[in-house]
Design a protein that fits this description.
Elements: E1 2-5, H1 7-15, H2 20-29, E2 34-38, H3 39-48, H4 52-55, H5 60-70, E3 74-76, H6 91-99, E4 104-106, H7 114-117, E5 119-120, E6 123-126, H8 128-135
Parallel strand pairs: 1-2, 1-4, 2-3, 4-6
Antiparallel strand pairs: 5-6
Length: about 140
């Protein structure tokens, strides 16, 4: 099974050791499924982790460890730029799902329109809670 994890899910896993995002991240680390990421997402993760709102809750060494771990996932170097999303900042997630032939795109962002799509090609778009309950 191939899965795209939205950056907000990855950040949530770093912020709280309780809940579906962290359980999903740990399941991937235990080789329960494959994660698809991209150079663009790794850059976004590094950049977002430095936002002022995260300074008090994210430990830089944990962010670095996550980025290093994700470099062992399926890392896409180039993504198509002709994918449309309600939020242009989410287009790269859909491009990753398409290029990586993902079964799931897991996102916690309810206002960006990804969850309302429910599907993108063969990829199901679900919340971390739904993914966790259906898969594990």
């Amino acid at each position: 099974m191939r899965v795209v994890l939205d950056t907000n899910v990855l950040l949530s896993a770093l912020i709280s050791p309780h809940g579906a995002p962290d359980a999903i991240y740990r399941a991937w680390r235990a080789a329960k499924f494959e994660v698809i990421t991209s150079l663009a997402q790794l850059d976004e993760l590094r950049r977002a982790s430095r936002y002022p709102k995260f300074q008090a809750v994210l430990q830089p060494h944990r962010v670095g460890a996550m980025v290093n771990n994700l470099q062992r996932a399926i890392v896409l170097e180039r993504l198509t730029t002709d994918v449309e999303a309600d939020d242009p900042n989410d287009a790269f997630l859909l491009a990753m799902a398409l290029a990586g032939d993902a079964d799931y795109l897991v996102t916690g962002d309810r206002r960006a329109g990804l969850l309302q799509r429910e599907r993108f090609g063969r990829t199901r778009i679900v919340t971390p809670g739904v993914f966790w309950s259906e898969i594990f």
